[in-house]
Amino acid sequence: MSITHAIHAGRVITVTAYTPPSPHRSPLPTRAPSRTKVVPHVRNRVGALIAVAGLALALVSLYLPWLSTDGGDQITALGITEIIDVRSVAPVLFLGLVVLLLLVGVTAVTRLGAFAAAGAVVSLVVLAAHLAFVWTLMSSTGGDEPTLSGLPTGASVTFGPWVAALGFVLVAAGSAWAARAAAYVFPDVEAHTAHGAHEDE
């Protein structure tokens, strides 16, 4: 603000000129650190890739030898279904693999924590059913009274079932890792939360 003096008809007239204040130079406040969450994108993808690798390993194990006979014959997991009745556990394992394919696929292409967590839970259920089936196989080989009828005499369990078990463990671990590092559980929940945060500001 400046003051100007002017003489008019013998009188001194004071004219006050308005000077706008200088612009605000201080930096504007930034968003609080608590609201800016950096999502570990790489960790999320690594977990999903581990789950994909584990599922691929479990699927490949279906074509690996699960049983070996005294004559040197190798029987795969698919071959076992042709010689013994596995209707008690086959639906659980088959449906589990189908559901895992869906959940792991969604986890790999998105960052939805709900699907990753569901994949971890389903893989643990399938792993439990698989181990129960392997225990039944082992108890049915080399014994006088096998639990499963139809197995060839002198058959023994090989490495195939353990490869499948390792695959299910990797699916569970990778899915749990992806769920922990996921950006959000569901996109609509995240969008609603973000909208509410903006309204609070």
TrEMBL record:
Lineage: superkingdom: Bacteria
Keyword Transmembrane: yes
Bilayer-spanning residue ranges: 46-68, 88-109, 116-138, 158-179
Record flagged with keyword Transmembrane helix: yes
Keyword line: Membrane, Transmembrane, Transmembrane helix
Protein name: Uncharacterized protein
Organism in which the protein naturally occurs: Dietzia lutea
